[in-house]
Design a protein that fits this description.
This protein is an alpha/beta fold. The strands form three sheets. Strands 4, 14, 15, 16, 17, 18, 19, 20 and 21 form a nine-stranded mixed beta sheet that branches. A hairpin with an 8-residue loop joins β17 and β18. Helices cover about 30% and strands about 25% of the residues. Bound molecules: ligand LLP. The site of ligand LLP has 23 residues, from α10. Its cofactor is pyridoxal 5'-phosphate. One of its GO terms (biological process) is lysine biosynthetic process via diaminopimelate. It catalyses: meso-2,6-diaminopimelate + H(+) = L-lysine + CO2.
């Protein structure tokens, strides 16, 4: 994050707080968030999209995708910076509401929302429920009718555009669970997307707000957003031709990629926003339809780079490795966390960067692998990194860019307690989410 720097004595600080103080005050492992950096990224996304869409003559809402990391304070920061909040479950919705995010500024996603989740959203007066199947159209309509309310909905569609990183996070190709296809049905009839849009129009307890598309995550080539926008805007025009209803809004989802390793490129919000706004305007001009209001849902790009994980090294072990052409030594550096606080390397083969942050070292760098303390050999934190050859037990080690999908995908595997989320700002730190205790773990077990 932009508030991370190495002091002249070699110790690293986050927002003016040294890592030794962070470790002493909060223990390790700990997720450390640079609050000012989070806010600056949230602001940058909002301002970039607002400026780009104002320039082509329409408005935009930026929703922070809470699945990346949602705590009460984080939801407040997003709201303070003028963002709405995208939630993916009743649990995320509850956190947003606890943070006093107004219902109107919240969206609810999910491909299999429970009745209780839908009712909680209706009672909160959410600004939108994104529906994901025909079954759900009817379910949400029935629940809203039962409550005597009319709820704004968007229909999530799949555009056939592939984008982003690993297959598990690339969501808009056809053979997966999300959304309704814009392709004609197998018998050549109406597409599932059009059928769902028309089903929404037929239910008085639903107001068809718009069409939603999310094409994937960790996207570094913005052309996918333009391709998806083209498909969605064409669908909007088709629906208008068939029914006379031109929907007000189009949501283009999240997925803006970040840098995980030194020297990697990230998507910059301003050029992406200009490109997307330009193509939305061009496609609408081609189709002869007025511009919709747009929304986007960045998660990773706002919180990912603003977070790091602080660990303590416990053991160091050189392992001799032989492959086809050489024999070399890899230093296995074990830290006090692992796949329970960051599943991404094991699940997606995700790459990270680590540094020894508590001190300077003049030692020659050696090839190292940072591993956790779980009972699996795939429990890898950083697959490959050069660390000072004198790295040793007690060293503080930081892994960068862990703000997104670290804490939010954390587990208690092997009975580890989940680390705290600590915010650093202006030379002080405070706990946003406390570390779990053994009492938390045992309290759930009723014997
Ligand atoms: N909107 C929708 C509808 C989504 O499904 C997602 C992510 C987002 C927004 C936010 O995407 P972002 O801007 O953060 O890329 N656990 C995976 C990422 C899964 C993303 C799922 N949906 C990972 O750790 O890479």
């Amino acid at each position: 994050s932009s508030g991370v720097r190495r002091r002249p004595d070699g110790e690293v600080e986050v927002a003016g707080v040294g890592v030794a103080a962070l470790a002493a005050d909060h223990g390790t492992p700990a997720y450390v968030l640079d609050e000012a950096d989070f806010r600056a990224r949230a602001r940058a996304y909002r301002q970039a999209f607002e400026a780009a869409f104002a320039a082509v003559g329409t408005g935009v809402d930026v929703y922070y995708a809470g699945k990346a990391l949602l705590t009460v304070a984080v939801a407040r920061w997003a709201r303070d910076e003028g963002l709405c909040v995208d939630t993916a479950s009743g649990g995320e919705l509850a956190v947003a509401l606890r943070a006093d995010v107004p219902g109107a500024a919240i969206g609810l996603h999910g491909n299999n929302k429970s009745d209780a989740e839908v009712l909680a959203a209706l009672d909160a007066g959410v600004g939108r429920i994104i529906v994901d199947s025909l079954v759900e159209v009817q379910r949400v309509a029935d629940l809203a009718a039962g409550r005597g309310v009319v709820v704004p909905v968007m229909v999530r569609v799949t555009t056939g555009v592939h984008a982003g990183g690993h297959e598990y996070i690339s969501t808009a190709h056809e053979d997966q669970k999300f959304g309704l296809s814009v392709a004609p049905a197998a018998d050549g009839g109406t597409s599932p997307a059009l059928a769902a849009l028309e089903a929404v129009l037929a239910r008085p307890s639903l107001r068809l707000l718009g069409i939603h598309s999310h094409i994937g995550s960790q996207i570094l080539d913005p052309s996918g957003f333009e391709a998806a926008a083209r498909v969605v805007l064409r669908l909007r025009a088709d629906l208008a031709a068939r029914t006379g209803v031109l929907v007000d809004e189009v949501d283009l989802g999240g997925g803006y990629g970040i840098a995980y390793l030194p020297g990697e490129e990230a998507l910059e919000p301003a050029p992406v926003a200009r490109e997307v706004a330009g193509s939305v305007a061009a496609v609408c001009a081609e189709l002869g339809t007025p511009l919709p209001r747009i929304s986007v849902e960045p998660g990773r790009a706002i919180v990912g780079p603003a977070g790091l994980t602080l660990y303590t090294v416990g053991t160091v072990k050189p392992v001799t490795v032989s492959d086809d052409d050489a024999t070399f030594t890899r230093l296995y550096v074990s830290v006090d966390g692992g796949m329970s606080d960051n599943i991404r390397p094991a699940l997606y083969g995700a790459q990270y960067h680590a540094e020894v942050v508590g001190r300077a070292s003049g030692a020659e760098p050696v090839l190292a692998r940072v591993v956790g303390k779980h009972c699996e050999s795939g429990d890898i934190v950083v697959h490959q990194v050069m660390l000072p050859g004198d790295v040793r037990a007690g060293d503080l080690l930081a892994v960068a860019a862990t703000g997104a999908y670290g804490r939010s995908m954390a587990s208690n595997y092997n009975g580890l307690t989940r680390p705290p989320v600590v915010a650093a700002v202006d030379g002080t730190s405070r706990v946003l989410v406390r570390r779990e205790t053994l009492d938390d773990l045992l309290g759930l077990d009723l014997g």
